[in-house]
Amino acid sequence: MAGSRVIVALDFADAPEALAFAARVTPAECRLKIGLELFTAAGPDLVTHLVTKGFDVFLDLKFHDIPNTVSRACLRAANLGVWMLNVHTLGGGKMLEAAREAIDRASHRPQLIGVTLLTSHGDEEASQIGLRDNVKRSVQRLAELARDSRLDGVVCSAQEAAALRQLCGSHFLLVTPGIRLAGSPADDQQRTLTPAEAVAQGADYLVIGRPITRAADPLSTLAAINREILVH
Ligand code: C5P
């Protein structure tokens, strides 16, 4: 794969904070993820700004709406020049196919990734929202739905990566958060893996936030992570 496997989560409150961080890293060392908080505060201008600077941007807005609305939103995101975007698989097969057809029509085609179940959901909540299977089985079923709708991959916890790799094949992208460096604090993440462990489980891309954004020297932390996963 060309470029780094590391996607840094820009979980900042506004554009100035995000840009101050982006100035400390380079597109050769990492890709950048813009989520709901930052996009709501800073909007598409920040996305295009970072794209113009040469960064691969993952727009993490987890679209979930009727097929027409999601397909149009995906096309707008593609037109911003993002490298990756995601939709929620609970939107169903028709929505996923509409999203994929929309980005297939885009002049610049981003990677389209599905969110299965949020890792904040446990079995009790899965049953509360009417899912007949437990979380593990539901995640597998939704990943298969993403694969059958010809999405490029899913976001999953690194613990699920090996099973999903087997289920969905070698070309299906697995994007995994919940990564912590050996010896660094877990923060609010429950079950974490190190970068090398996640890649060994089959992860293609690692979403890493605080261990890099709060590091005294983000660039050297990134370099150490990139070295750690190169040997895998
Ligand atoms: O700071 P930290 O490395 O925990 O950041 C992880 C990033 O991945 C955050 O942007 C978080 O919202 C995101 N994420 C996650 N767990 C998921 C899906 C996304 O931590 N299941």
What this model shows, in words?
- With 232 residues, this protein is an alpha/beta fold.
- It has helices spanning 15-22, 36-52, 67-79, 93-105, 123-128, 135-148, 158-168, 195-200, 210-213, 218-230, and strands spanning 6-9, 31-34, 57-63, 84-88, 111-115, 153-155, 173-176, 205-208.
- It contains ten helices and eight strands.
- The mean pLDDT is 95.
- Residues 9, 11, 35, 118-119, 155, 177-178, 187, 189, 207-211 line the site of cytidine-5'-monophosphate.
Helices, by number, come to 10
- Ligands, ions, cofactors: cytidine-5'-monophosphate
Amount of helix: 40-55%
Largest sheet descriptor: 8 strands, parallel, barrel
Q: Kindly estimate the percentage of residues that lie in beta strands according to DSSP.
A: 15-25%
Taken in chain order, the helices and strands follow as EHEHEHEHEHHEHEHEHH
Uncertain stretches: none
Number of strands: 8
SSE topology:
Layout: E1 6-9, H1 15-22, E2 31-34, H2 36-52, E3 57-63, H3 67-79, E4 84-88, H4 93-105, E5 111-115, H5 123-128, H6 135-148, E6 153-155, H7 158-168, E7 173-176, H8 195-200, E8 205-208, H9 210-213, H10 218-230
Parallel strand pairs: 1-2, 1-8, 2-3, 3-4, 4-5, 5-6, 6-7, 7-8
Helix pairs in contact: 1-2, 3-4, 6-7
Characteristics:
eight-stranded parallel beta barrel; binds cytidine-5'-monophosphate
Outline of this structure?
This protein is α/β, with parallel strands linked by helices.
